[in-house]
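Hi there, hope your week has been kind to you so far. Would you mind checking whether the tokens look sensible for this chain? I owe you a coffee for this, so here goes:
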Amino acid sequence: MAKQIDNLKSGSDQWKTILAVVVVIATLALYYVNPLNFNSLTKVLVTLALFIAAGGIFIKSSQGDTFVHFLKETRIELRKVVWPTREETLKTTGIIMIAVVVVAIFLWIVDAFFTWGVQSISSINIF
């Protein structure tokens, strides 16, 4: 009996998700085709209202519930992050900039060496 209820719930949830997708597609079609010749403000407000309606329908589905749960867990994890201070950020940025300059100079020297090598080899007339 519980399995039948779960099947009915998942079936209705699938229809909620499908309905939300259909509303989004219809909203985009209404926005771009504009068969009712709305002015810009009305077009944007109607589009916004229909997107909110589609979001509300989606949130009521099981996929929407899973998405909301994911967002809550993400928020909890972001609270656990230890953000660097301004001083640490400036020091790290300075170190990275110095490293970039050193690597650029090294690559410039290697490139100049290979350019010199290729030019000296190509200047020899073997044929």
